[in-house]
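Shipment paperwork, digital attachment
Item: protein structure file
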Amino acid sequence: MVQPLWHNLHEAACARGDSTYRDPETGYTVFTRTAHLARGKCCGSACRHCPFDHEAVPAPR
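Attachment content:
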């Protein structure tokens, strides 16, 4: 399986303790797993690297 382009960027950012990285495909700033863990809970925005299993994301209507 081929990893998405952002995969290694995310891993490197987490290893440095960074809270964000820039997605190379979209240019968006993305929160890392490190940032989410520091927040302490799911924000409900369906974030890519949510370590809380998206527990606060509302169910689709």
